[in-house]
Design a protein that fits this description.
four-stranded antiparallel β-sheet
Length: 219
């Protein structure tokens, strides 16, 4: 799962990137409104975390522009601005939720999961594709009689595949969803992750489409 983090505070940005990456989330971090405006049109993000006090373009103006241009990615405002008028304005301009700083990462993660579920039309944190089930909250994967809690990278891999069951994802598409901007990716990183998952659950859990990529069957 890829997240766009729009935050100009270096300490907060580094902290959130590290915390979310530890949960298997690929974080792409931009520090000003101009860079965010360009990044928002990338359709690969599951959610946007948007600070309001940004250089160059204010967060509320960025939000208004994004919705006007048809960007429908869930947007969660994270800000120290606590005024009621600003909270109402943010929600009216198209934000899906509003979280005041300082906050606990656990609460942020829970709100993110709720917004992503709502966007996908799901009521629970459970993803399913055929005989495979993945709990987005606990990172437990179930396949047949086997079950195990996945590492952060394994979870990111399976989450990417389970978002699009029946669709082949290439190596580059999986790398985009597993790793954030600027992260060094070894040439066989995806193969290694798939090997780890298959070692726990068997070779049939992930299908290899020779020359194209990998997929999970819909049923």
């Amino acid at each position: 799962m890829r997240v766009l983090l729009v935050e100009d505070d270096v300490m907060i940005g580094e902290g959130l990137t590290a915390a979310l990456s530890a949960e298997g989330i690929s974080v792409d971090w931009v520090r000003d409104g101009a860079a965010a405006e360009a990044a928002l049109h990338d359709q690969g993000f599951a959610i946007v975390l948007l600070d309001l006090g940004l250089p160059e373009v204010d967060g509320l103006d960025l939000l208004k522009l994004a919705r006007k241009q048809g960007v429908d990615t869930p947007i969660l405002i994270i800000t120290a601005r606590s005024g009621l008028d600003e909270r109402v304005s943010g929600l009216d301009l198209g934000a899906d939720d509003y979280l005041l700083k300082p906050f606990e990462v656990r609460e942020l993660s829970a709100r993110m999961r709720a917004l992503i579920r709502r966007s996908a039309g799901r009521a629970t944190s459970m993803l399913a594709a055929g005989d495979v089930e993945l709990d987005a909250e606990t990172h437990e994967l179930r396949y047949g009689d086997a079950r195990a809690v996945l590492s952060a990278r394994e979870y990111a891999l399976m989450h990417a595949l389970m978002e699009r069951p029946g669709r082949i994802l290439s190596r580059s598409q999986l790398e985009e969803r597993i790793y954030g901007w600027g992260e060094e990716v070894e040439s066989n990183a995806v193969d290694v992750l798939i090997h780890y998952v298959r070692r726990k659950f068997g070779k049939t859990i992930i299908l290899n489409i020779r020359g194209a990529g990998w997929m999970l069957p819909k049923s």
